[in-house]
Amino acid sequence: MPLLYADLVEVYDRLSSTTKRLEMTEILVDFFKRCPSGVIDKAVYLTQGRLYPEFIPLELGVADRLIARSISQAVAVPESEVTSLYKKLGDLGKVAENLLAKGKKQVTLQFFSGDRSREKLTVEEVYKVLDRIARSQGEGSQEEKLRLLSDLLRDSSPREALYIIRTVSGAMRLGVADMTILDALSIAFAGSKDAREAIERAYNLTSDLGAIAKSLATGGLASLGEAKPEPGRPIRPMLAERLSTPEEILEKIGGKCAVEYKYDGERVQIHRGDDGNVKLFSRRLENINGHYPDVAELASRSISSKTFIVEGEIVAVDQSTGEMLPFQELMHRRRKYGVEEAMQAYPAALRLFDALYADGRDLTLEPYPARRKALEGMTTESERISLATQRVVDNPRSLEEFFEEAISEGCEGLVAKSLGSSSIYKAGARGWLWIKYKRDYKSEMQDSVDLVAVGAYWGTGRRAGNIGTLLLAAYDPGEDMFRTVCKCSTGFSDEEIRNMRSIFEKSIIMHRHARVDSKLNPDIWITPSKVLEIRGAEITLSPIHTCGMGTIREGSGLAIRFPRFTGKWRDEKAPEDATTVQEIVEMYRRQLKKVE
Ligand code: ATP
């Protein structure tokens, strides 16, 4: 017996009448038990308001305007009537229901035909039409969608029309969480919630509730087998818990752990299957190849395993220096158009942090150290692709130092990772195997500062052959020293970059100047002479810069995060007139107070 769409509509009605998870589970259990196994996958997707699992990049994508036109054609009323009713009701689904009910009443009165003996819609039929709507693309597709939708509405009852419209407009929102569906599947097909764990693992590894429902309905629990990752199907991401001190982290994680830079970019899961195609999935499991064709290409050529699933963070980098840029720069990639331009202007780099699958080997059940080793083995590192910077620590001090280093390198903080034998990849779970350590505050640097160039680095890419980055310092009048506070590569015009060599020509020296205090070793040393105006995001503690070293915390100096040249060469200032170390320390303290 085929499943009638009206039956599914009744389930929708019942689901929308409650917000209680237990009641929803019961409604679904009852439904799954009687749903024919051939359409259960489709029924599951439809209940979630979609046609396919999230990772299939096909969307119904029907705009409100087109929906309004379909309703108007289906019920033969002017489009203006549809739009004015929409303004009143605020829900195109209700508009369709309303107008269809009115139309049907008129037909009944006119022809005394009672209930029209139309064929009743089945779930299979509705799904087929919606699938054709989703797949219709390119020239003539709008007319095709319009025709398909209005025909479907003509064949449906008012209540069915309500849900069809809500489905095509992406407004189903029945409030059924994935977890509720998992509970219901377990009870319906295994008799109790006991099978929930096995079902959930399958779900976490395949991210496809419809396929799981179908497999349970046709072959029972045994058919799920031991779920394995499969390239092409995104794995639900493992997530981190959060703590706010190194002491707490070490205590929770067993005294010793690996800490990795927490990059401030976009998480990506990269798959390559037997067909050789590379697929990128976002944290929400959407396919994002369209935003990052360069990242797909980069991974494809730098990872040696024939088939693999790895995870990492996409970060925006400065073209000429390779340094990381703030996260917002990446968001240009999320625009609908102009990906090509954005790719040029905001090149992306990859920092890999996990390997989940390689050439038939399921790595998700292996502990973190083994996964990291596998990742190392399969990646050919270069400037644009590398493993997340990592260190193993066993005391709060080293952890804190590494944290400051991460911040001064433009990261958000650290992710501490358990090294224990049970440190598997827990797909879809937020747990204590990973603990993030982020800064709790963020504040803007109010004032710009005037800093002195004491060193420089050669540029790469478009800046090859020119100076691309300056090492900048604040002045310490007490000791008559210049102490480094940041490396700056942004804010310079192309012309300034071209002229940079001649600007500094006379000041270049072979060794660090005696009045310069630096832990860094730039490509070129410069006699302190030129002063530049700089604006940064904030001041942070840093183990690599010497400005204010030991003043706030032993072993730490201060750094300006995301420094940017304002365009002002302060030629009227002598290097001794630059912002002082003491001023930077005060700015840091003020920043802290503001946060408190
Ligand atoms: P947040 O907003 O803090 O990134 P979240 O909920 O997206 O939180 P969490 O699991 O809590 O994710 O934090 C870890 C996130 O940090 C990952 O989702 C990933 O995007 C990012 N990240 C950056 N570097 C790493 C790394 N080395 N290891 C793991 N995750 C990393």
Can you describe what's shown?
With 596 residues, the protein is an alpha+beta fold. The protein has 3 domains: 50-169, DNA ligase i, domain 1 (Orthogonal Bundle), CATH 1.10.3260.10; 242-441, DNA ligase/mRNA capping enzyme (D-amino Acid Aminotransferase, Chain A, domain 1, 2-Layer Sandwich); 448-595, Nucleic acid-binding proteins (OB fold (Dihydrolipoamide Acetyltransferase, E2P), Beta Barrel), CATH 2.40.50. Helix content is 38%, strand content 20%. It is built from 19 helices and 21 strands. The chain has helices at residues 5-16, 21-34, 40-47, 64-75, 79-89, 92-111, 123-135, 141-154, 158-168, 178-190, 196-206, 209-219, 246-253, 293-302, 339-345, 368-378, 396-408, 494-504, 581-595; strands at 239-242, 257-262, 266-272, 278-281, 308-316, 348-358, 361-362, 385-387, 390-393, 413-417, 430-438, 449-458, 467-476, 481-488, 508-509, 516-517, 524-526, 531-535, 538-542, 557-561, 564-569. The strands form 4 sheets. Strands 12, 13, 14, 15, 16, 17, 18 and 21 form an 8-stranded mixed sheet that branches. Strands 3, 4, 5, 6, 7 and 8 form a 6-stranded mixed sheet that branches. A hairpin with a 4-residue loop joins strand 13 and strand 14. Helix 2 (21-34) crosses helix 10 and helix 4 (64-75) packs parallel to helix 6. The structure holds adenosine-5'-triphosphate (ATP). Adenosine-5'-triphosphate is lined by residues 239-240, 260-263, 267, 283, 313, 353, 388, 415, 436.
